[in-house]
Structures are given as structure tokens and as C-alpha cells.
Specification:
Blueprint: E1 3-7, E2 24-28, E3 53-64, E4 68-79, H1 82-102, E5 110-121, E6 128-141, H2 147-158, E7 162-170, H3 174-200, E8 204-211, E9 223-224, E10 244-256
Antiparallel strand pairs: 1-2, 3-10, 4-6, 4-7, 5-6, 7-9, 8-10
Amino acid sequence: MTTRWTVATISAVAAAVAAVGVIATATNDDRAAATVPPDSVPGQDDVPGGDRTIVVSGHGTVTVTPDIANLSLGVQTTAPTGSEALDTIGEQSTALVATLKALGIADADLQTSGLSLWPQYSDDGVTINGYTASVNVNVTVRDIARVGEIVDAAQGFVGEGLTIGGIGFSYDEPETVLEDARIAAIENARVRAEQYAAAAGVSLGDIVRIIEPTSQGPVPVFEERFAADDSAAGAAVAIEPGSQDLAVDVTVVFAMA
């Protein structure tokens, strides 16, 4: 993806002061983060410090490894009647949750969701010959190394009735993860501003405003969907969380000293 930033043109005309204009465009093919919307860059009328300012955008990235796995496990069964199907998955899901708790998963990291019941039809498409019920249990695993153990335990307990809706990865403290990226973004903006100031023959002053888009934030590294299989029983499932470059973009307003 190609990301293009355009820094606002700053111009000032005064009777005894030379005009200083800054226009900068930077392109980085490796950037995947959202850019600062044009309307978020402060205009000349609302920039602190008046006309003698330099406005630049800064970009910072940090490479991190996720520390949380979000796992979706489910139970599905078919029975002659809807009540029988619901009773069966009720018993199985209760036992599945008990198994997960026995493995050390906290109550706060377990959530039941996606309860469904639908009829099964015979070949004529009219006659109902059974009902299928399913329910999901969302599991937050705070030790990624144990994901394979947990999947295997669930597979061993439920068997063919187990469904695995997917796995995603995230971060326990996203603000801590982004701290280094923010620092890098400010430093990146300062380097740019110093270059513009030197080219214009002025001195760079203090930062008078920092703007960060509110839409930024960590995203899961990836999400994968797969189905349980009896052939996987007894073999640990290999889970690799990978790594992710998280980015922060800021707009920084510097005063001219």
C-alpha cells in the first residue's frame, strides 16, 4: 500500500518579516497505518503562535508480538427434536466451560455466544427430520503458548461435535504497546521540521500543538478459521502469533524561534 501525506502550506506576509512557506510531501510504500485526514491539519487561523509556525506530519512504528489469543470454540449436535438438540449442547457446552476452567481459564475470559437452532429437512425439502443446535464459547487465552493445549483438550472432550470458529491475536495493554510508536512519530516530525527550518533559514522553536487521529489503534495480527478433525486428536496444534508493525501518525506544529 502507498501512503501519501501532504503537509499544509504555511505562509506569512508582514511588513518587516520575510515570508516562509513550507510544503512537504512524503511517500513510504511500507506504511500501512491511516494517514492524518486533511481537515485535521490546523489551519492558519487556529494555529497557536500565529503565522510563524511550521506544520509537519510524523510517522512512528513499533514491531511487537501479540500476547493474547482470542479463540472461538463451539459445540454442535443434531437430534430428532429441537428440545433434545438444545439439551445436548447445553450439557456439552457446560462441560466444555468446566474443562476450560480446569485448565486455568478465568471466568472473565469466557463468554458464551451464538446460540442457534435450525431444522434439518429430508430430500423433499419439506419434511423436517431433525434439528441442529450450536453454541459458541469465546475464550481469551493470556498465555499464547497454551493455545494448542486448550484446543486439544476441547477436541478430546467434545470430539466431532467441536467447531473452531477462528483464532485472533491482540494485546493486553495496547496503550503501552503504542508508547514507543508515539515517541518515534514525534522524533520523525522533529527531524522533518528541522530540515524545513534550516532550508528556510530560520530556527526551530518549541512544539505548540500535537494532533493524533483518534481512529488509530492496534489490530489483530491475523485471524484464521479452521475445523476440528479427529486426525488432530493427540497432536498439539502449532500456534504462531507472528509479529505486527503498529503505526502512529501525528501532526505537529512547531514555532519558529
